[in-house]
Amino acid sequence: MTVKIFDTPDVQAFVKTVAGFDKTGGNDRAKQIVHRLVGDLFKLIDDFDVTEEEYWAGVNLLNALGSQTQFGLLSPGLGFDHFLDMRQDAIDAEAKRTGGTPRTIEGPLYVAGAPEAEGFARLDDEATEGETMWLTGQVRDVNGTPIAGAKVEIWHANSQGGYSFFDPSQSEYNLRRTIYADSDGRYTARSIIPSGYGVPEGAPTDVVLKSLGRHGERPAHIHYFVSAPGHQHLTTQINLAGDPYTYDDFAFATREELVVPAERIDDPAEIAKRDLDGPFSHVVFDVELAQTDAAELQVRHARPRAKEDDQDLASQLAGTAKV
Ligand code: MBD
Ligand code: FE
């Protein structure tokens, strides 16, 4: 097929009309972005001779993604979350903000409002099966000074790769806690070793990944938000070493500095010291927070929270546009 109409005056004028350029109301930035987005997609249809069948299959796929709230899952799969991190890293580098534990993506499964504790928390309800994990570390600034009272939010999957709130078989806030570091900046969590997450078989996100010859697996990982006044808010994760997907994460979240071993301990003295009933896996993750004077850098949650799903769309969009 040789039909190419994108560059014609009619189509160029049409894209401007679609984007509301001839209207006084609305939002200028929205107009510019929609103009670029629709124009680029029109051009793509022209360049690839996208058929009507292909176009409507795409519309059906978007509907399926939306109805199953999977855009937040496809987003890391298509690298958008990691791309935003790369941009944030470049912004830090340009501002000469160096040092600190590297950030990596939040993912779609954080839930606000987890129970809070000081120094130590047990993350699992006692009914959760799995190998006992003893997770501990120290929060410091870039000069190595411990940050007393730093806020450490931790969330992870169970041994089936499922997250509480999204997996109705788990109790409320299972494997989710906020721990305030002790006077020496230390936090300790007792939990169970998580398994990797896999995109549900046959789900719209899986359909997209399969069409690219890709899988939807993540390695075993543990999510963190770490924050303290005067420091840059850190969103990160650790990836457990030795998982087949540690370096083959569909969400592109692995960073070398964030790969940590889980060390099996069966010394009875170490078990007794922690009041455990048997062997456990020891995971250590120390965190370094970069300094900041800029108040806005302490807030990194642009993403609408799962608990806010019942908020209306306009106020969610308004809330995210401000960040
Ligand atoms: C997860 O647990 C996750 O962290 C990401 C980024 C995507 C899907 C599931
Ligand atoms: Fe996750």
From TrEMBL:
Where in the sequence does UniProt note compositional bias of the Polar residues kind?
313-323
One Gene Ontology BP term is: beta-ketoadipate pathway
| Every Intradiol ring-cleavage dioxygenases domain range | 135-163
Q: What is this protein called?
A: catechol 1,2-dioxygenase
Q: What class does this enzyme belong to in the EC scheme?
A: oxidoreductase
Keyword Metal-binding on entry: yes
As cofactor, the record names: Fe(3+)
Biological pathway: Aromatic compound metabolism; beta-ketoadipate pathway; 5-oxo-4,5-dihydro-2-furylacetate from catechol: step 1/3
Q: Which UniProt keywords apply?
A: Aromatic hydrocarbons catabolism, Dioxygenase, Iron, Metal-binding, Oxidoreductase
Q: Which InterPro entries match?
A: Catechol_dOase_N, Cchol_dOase_prob, Intradiol_dOase_C, Intradiol_dOase_core, Intradiol_RC_Dioxygenase
Q: What is its EC number?
A: 1.13.11.1
What's an example of a GO molecular-function annotation for this chain? catechol 1,2-dioxygenase activity
Write out the catalysed reaction: catechol + O2 = cis,cis-muconate + 2 H(+)
Q: Does this UniProt record's set of keywords contain Ribosomal protein?
A: no
Please give the organism: marine sediment metagenome
